[in-house]
Amino acid sequence: MKKIYCNIKKCLGCGSCEIACAVEHSKSKELNKSIAESPLPVKRRKAKFIEEGVSISTGCHHCENAACVTACMSGAMHKDKKTLLTQHDKDKCVGCWMCIMSCPFGALTRLKEEKIVLKCDLCPDREIPACVEACPTKALVLGTLKEFESKAVNILRASP
Amino acid sequence: MAKPTGNPINDELLKIAAQNNISTVWDRFMEQEPHCGFGTLGACCKICNLGPCRIDPFGEGAQKGACGADSDTISSRNLTRNTAAGVACHSDHGRTLAKTLLELGRGIAKDYSIKDPAKLKRLAVEFSIKIEGKSDLKIAEELGEAILKEYGQQEGELTLTKRAPKKQQENWKKTNVSPRGIDIEVVQAFSRTHIGCDNEYKHVLEAAIRASLVDGWGGSMIATELSDILFGSPEPIRAEMNLGVLKEDEVNILLHGHEPILSDIIVTASQDKELVELAKKYGAKGINLSGICCTAAEVLMRHGVPMAGNFLQQELAIITGAVEAMIVDVQCIMPSLPEVAKSFHTKLISTSPKAKFVGMEHIEFHEKDALATAKKILRIAIENYKNRNHSKVSIPKEKMTLVAGFTMENIFYNLGGSFRPSYRPLNDAIISGRIRGVAGVVGCDNPKNESGMCHVDMVKELIKNDILVVQTGCSGGACAKAGLLTPEAAFKFAGDGLKEICETVGIPPVLHTGSCVDNTRILTACCEMVKEGGIGNSIDELPVAGAAPEWMSEKAIAIGWYFVASGIFVVLGTPLRVLGSKNVTNYICNEIEPLYGGKWAFEGDPIKAAHLMIGHIDKKREALKLKPVMYATA
Amino acid sequence: MQYVIIGSSAAGISAIEAIRTKDKVSKIIVISDEKNPLYSRCLISYLLAGTIDEKKIWYKPGSFFKDNKVEALLGIKADKINIKKKEITLDNKEKIKFDRLLIATGASPKLENIPGIDKKGVFPLRTIEHAIEIQSMLDKVKSVAILGGGLIGLRAAYALKNRGKDVSVFVKSGSILSQIIDKDAAGLMQKRIEEKGIKIFTGVAAKEIQGDKSANRIIFDNGSEIVGNGRDRSLLVIIGKGVSPNIEIAKDAGIKTNRGILANEHLETNVESIFTAGDVSETNDIALEESSMNAIWPAACEQGRIAGLNMAGENELYEGSLAMNSIEFFGLPVISVGITRPKSDKYKEIVKKDPSKNIYKKIVLKNGIIKGVIFVNSIENIGVIGSLIKNKVDVSGVKDIILEDYFDYGKIATLVKKSKKGFREPEFKETIMTL
After folding, report:
1. Cβ–Cβ under 8 Å, residues B253 and B374
2. Can you give the pTM of this predicted structure?
């Protein structure tokens, strides 16, 4: 299955992925209008600082043995039978935060008022996820793990 | 390949570009999409090394830069620096002309001359120079000195600000934005926006406004006046526009950039008999000069030199394969040109000590040996004709006629007919409601909008509603391509009231008034309309509005500001980069209206934007208690 | 191959799904003493609170057994296991043979020997039946007494307060939630709960429940008492004194048990072909590094999954469980993982708190490795710390920033890359390859 991977060697931590994610999940899907929406759209991806000059952009990794699916007591977090991606059913979510407790990447965002969580949904309405398109260095790629690994190896070979 | 622009000429040439693997501005623009959200919203600050800092517009991440600046401070500082950069361009443009005037007066710049001595004298009087008993050259020298003095002035006022109606001058004094000198306001716009200096956003923006006044009532206005003095005050003239003006059988030379001290001399040099003979020797029928961007407007309105294209078309002009040389000086010249020219025989020649490009031959141009340098450059171009690959030539058929060259002075004659030189007829037309009002639609073209079509759509909507439109620069070029700058356009597109006036006087419904520095002609026209009376006692009371529907450059920001600060409502097609700060946005779009009478608005749809302007103009008419518009359409 | 599973809650359901990923053909029989076992036990208190409607409680659709080709014997109890004959006897005397057996009988609420505990109006809260019974009392009863200050007790208290009742909680120990969080964290939660009108009494245990047929008074060991103040003076009493694992069937059959049924790292019991998972099983605790019981939903699901895979012939290793709890009352969330109340001085604690914001964060370390964590209110990224506990990472280099607000996965990326034994899951390859 195709997932979003981040090549840390190319990640600048610029945050363009965060903005693109928020805009894609806004009502208007336009940058200038989305910042005026109420409530503001919520991003599901974050550029995280590792050390000087090194960052990683992370969101839901759609883990094979997803800890959040194991922990979810309402069945809201589940694996899609066809794509094997980790899906979240907002209607079933009771805001118990067990997924936040379990996720090794911290990929869940808590909506305190509505008492549900949000996470990366791989932009179901788009061919290419918004963050992947927005990444100015193409650090973010959509592909299988094999595809990412072969791309990464080439970059590792090329970089000093 | 870039997606089609919707403009058939451009799209044809883009196909050729794609076939030759040439990247154009449209391809590179798409590669940049989506543009950085932080930059777009003005939420990125690169001023100091604690950064670069970002403010999260969605509220989750950092809300302050490392130094503590919030989005209000960051946006206002960025906007002020952008404004100052635009002002600096126009200041330099005026400075170059002032220096040329001075050197002419001193006998150094011998290749130039005083083409409008009456204007020279009028301007000298404005600058408090005694003209009795002095030769033109002497007056020129003193005027040049007086103007350059204002560049270095530390205290006092700028002479030309006194042209503005009293109310405008009072507004500026009250809000502490009356400019003291030209260079000082640009310098301080930068020094104040250094880290840890001016932080309160309204105060920061004062620097932007003050700098912009230095442009509108300083550098640009000086440039307009001195260009008329040195190269001739334009008269309405018919010319042609679009890439079809390139000729298959002549040496095509493109002038690109901004300063007429270069382009005008080249026009003169191109008439040199020796050079024409040289062209014929190589098999060409003659020398065909045409222009891109503002310098094109300068020679268009004074000499009828055709305009080949506007900003976005500069690469396409080379892609026709028919251009022997493109001679450039400063501003709006894409550094991609040499790469594009590699596929063709076109020679690119840079001329300004301030602007060098990788891949261009640099032949520096100075006033003191202007004509000789111009001839040297032309010779290179002519000799290149033999290298033209005629099988690679693809000149589009389209070109449009336009009437250009309307200025503050000659509008007198046109609107009043030959025997009644005054603004009375214009004011009467507005009072009677035949003309609803006047709109200035100016500025660049931008792939973010419609690569020029927004101008056309907006202008058509405005003239449909009996609004007389004045244009400059690339905007004028865009509408010229659509045939709007001819008297005939009035019959096709204008509302009944405007149609009547155009018919009677014989003018187009859309008046081309020159290059981007000539936006000051619009300011001067507004002053005259106020003086003439009946439609407002200050610029902010006039039924006028402004728009730059596809703005691109920092100069456009400076121009917009000086219109706003002078009392005019300005609509932009994409927002200024301040939306990340609600306070700054609200300030420049609402709160400054009572202070200056003008304000900004942002509307991407050209029709909606046109109606914002129409609504504004109607409001002004109401406030003036004028009769309703004669032929209501909106 | 015939698979038999006793128990159809979290562990049983997960085992069924796991078996079916490997073996789509063989027969699976599941036995459950509940008529409708496919609900989420954890959502019972939400149902009682009225914050979800009944539809949401169903963890799997009604067609689950059919979809997975499982023969479900519901409302039936398994009585005996004959290890030699590999045979189960049900309470209706029927006998069923098995090739592989999973004992996932779960646990039952502890009902202490308090006189009067069998009166009407006294309930534990574990099954959907309990919730329905309690619901039926709600229009008659006004006062509620909760015996026990643990998870069940407080969840019941919150639920019934939400339904408009007068709720009092009686806790034997010195603080609420003493099994899972420390005194300081418990104090913040207690304050919030009391602010919202639930009364909490610590250090008291019930001595006797009085009343005719229905409970209407409780007498406590410190002499205090509580009476019902509804129309008929009746009292609703919820017992939240923990659960004890249902090990009888295994014990009787001769399978090795301790507190729970003992499971090896394949989740197999000491008897070949007999596996165990869920609240009834005793497995390795990753933090304690000894065998323990963590009767929580995520552990039951994970154990059921691995047991199921191994029953179907795979060779999956179960690393062990961790104590894990997430609760939120009146807008104040508390999450705890691992050892939160260390009992020896071999453990170090690092605390960061901001009482004005109700924020309390603590990690418990041993030899540089995190053993436990509590986050109150600011719960973001606690899963990252959980992953450090699971992978037994030496965090000496980052312990100063773990409790900061900006702590996130990025801050442990280097540790992930350096780790020699942990972070084997494919999801960490991205970091290991490109950092």
Report:
1. no
2. 0.85
